[in-house]
C-alpha cells in the first residue's frame, strides 16, 4: 500500500493565482471524510480521504524516483519505509486537482483568536510511505487541549 501524507498550508489572504495543470490525462479525484474525534459530535475533527488523485503511471513514476526509503515504523503493527522530499511541482499538480474540494467554507478555518484563514495550496514537503501488505495500523495523535 502506498500512502502520501499531504500537509495543507493556510494563508490569511486568499490566493487568486491559478496555475495550469501539467498532465493531459487527469484522474477524477473523489473526497470522503473519516471522523476521528474523541467526541463524535464534533463535525470539525475528521481526516480527508481523496481517492483517484494520481494515475497509476504517476504513482509508479514517483515511487521509482525515490529509492532512499528508510524504515520508519510508527506502531508495533505497522511496517513501512519512508522518504521525505520537497517537490513544489507535485504539490502544485495535487493542489490543482483538489482545490475545488476546498472552495467556500470547506477551505476556511477560524482560529482561537477569531482570525479567518483560507486554504491556498499544499506544502511542498512530501512523504512517500510504502507499507508491507497486511502491516498497516492506524495511529491517531493525542493532542492536549
Provide a descriptive summary of the structure in words:
This protein is α+β, with helices and mostly antiparallel strands. The protein has one domain (2-15, 25-131). Helices cover 14% and strands 32% of the residues. It has a four-stranded antiparallel β-sheet with strand order 1-9-6-5, with no helix packed on it. The longest helix has 11 residues, at 88-98. It is globular. Residues 10-24 have low confidence and may be disordered.
List keywords for this structure.
145 residues; alpha+beta; four-stranded antiparallel beta sheet; three-stranded antiparallel beta sheet; 9 strands; 14% helix; globular
Measured as a percent range, the helix fraction is: 10-25%
Low-confidence stretches: 10-24
Radius of gyration: 17 Å
Label the structural class.
Answer: alpha+beta
Measure the end-to-end span: 33 Å
| Count of runs of 4 or more consecutive helical residues | 2
**Assembly state (oligomeric):** single chain
Mean pLDDT, all residues = 76
Number of structurally distinct domains: 1
Shape: globular
Main pleated sheet: 4 strands, antiparallel
> Helix and strand string, N-terminal first?
EEEEHEEHEEE
Side-by-side strand order of the widest sheet: 1-9-6-5
Beta-strand content estimate:
25-35%
